[in-house]
Amino acid sequence: MERRKSPNGFIVVLPGEIIEIPQDSDKSWLTLFYSLPRELAEKWKSAYDLPRCPYEVLRTDKYDHIVCDDMFKLLVWDCYAWSAWQFFQVKDRKGNYRDIPGAWTQYAGYFPLWRLSYSIIPYIRMKFEQNGLDFQNLYNIPQGVEVPWLTYQQFSNLIGNVTDMVVEEQEWQPVIDAIWENRTVEDYEATSSTVKTDFMRKWHHNRSGKPISLDEMMESEDGDIFDVADPRSDFENSVISEMQIATFAESTITEKDREILKLRMEGYTEQEIADKVGYKTASAVHKRIAKIADTYEDFVTAEYQKYLNK
């Protein structure tokens, strides 16, 4: 008999009977559960204790106290949402697609991309039904035969491929792009993080990640900078450790820029630095420091990307 799909459930054809598993039932998540790797399933011990042979789990109520527990659904949903999140692609500042930067814990739970990672779960479940990881095959497993655990890498490959398929078929990439391009401060956790700092720099249009008033942007007629708190102070005075200075300065900037950076770190004013290195005005030194800051940002971004790619 040909297997069919019902709009209200998953259809299983067995000798002498046809079973329908409603899509909103607790057992409807079992296909996703039996595809989890051991490392994720053991996050909730009771679910980890479910027998790997699904025969009795599907046909009796012996294990309903586990399958019908809200924690069971939460385990499945959280694992698949977290996994799908890893494969969403967003644009970097050059317009190239990449994984979402930073750790998932650095983003707020109500960030729209987080919500989208949960919205994709029913689509993943339907993809399983359409591609062999379905209830028909689960019911066909004989009594006493166990479903083998997927390795973490196998599961990662599976969810990566399925996520890409769903995003393409549902035309979600423009949605993801719009969400990413319109982030707000509230989309990040309150705690400080590299990704939040990078966003705040763009949000406030400066490298400190803090608001700058118009007065702070003004220069005097002779080119000197007014004595105001410089938003680059984090860059100049506290962010760069001695080791970072050595690595950054020796490999990236010119000898004169290294001297400017060294003098600034030692507390010299921009005018004093100008006198020492041969510039006519403090404004020229200020512009060189801005250039060094730009170069340093590229340096840090490259180093951070190397860390993410490990």
List the helices and strands and how they pair.
Layout: E1 9-14, E2 17-22, H1 30-33, H2 38-41, H3 45-48, H4 55-59, H5 64-67, H6 70-85, E3 89-91, E4 97-99, H7 112-119, H8 121-130, H9 135-140, H10 152-169, H11 173-181, H12 194-204, H13 214-217, H14 233-239, H15 242-252, H16 255-265, H17 270-277, H18 282-308
Antiparallel strand pairs: 1-2, 3-4
Helix pairs in contact: 6-7, 17-18
Description of the molecule:
- The chain is mainly α and 310 residues long.
- It folds into 2 domains: 9-187, no CATH class; 205-308, no CATH class.
- The protein is 54% helix and 6% strand.
- The chain has helices spanning 30-33, 38-41, 45-48, 55-59, 64-67, 70-85, 112-119, 121-130, 135-140, 152-169, 173-181, 194-204, 214-217, 233-239, 242-252, 255-265, 270-277, 282-308, and strands spanning 9-14, 17-22, 89-91, 97-99.
- The strands form 2 sheets. A two-stranded antiparallel ribbon has the order 1-2.
- Helix 6 (70-85) crosses helix 7 (112-119) and helix 17 packs across helix 18.
Give the oligomeric state.
single chain
> How many structural domains does the protein architecture include?
2
Estimate the mean pLDDT confidence: 80
Helix content: 40-55%
Shape: elongated
- Major sheet size, sense and barrel closure: 2 strands, antiparallel
Low-confidence stretches: 1-7, 203-209, 212-240
**Pattern of helices and strands:** EEHHHHHHEEHHHHHHHHHHHH
Q: By helix and strand content, what is the structural category? A: mainly alpha
Write out the strand line-up for the largest beta sheet, numbering strands in chain order: 1-2
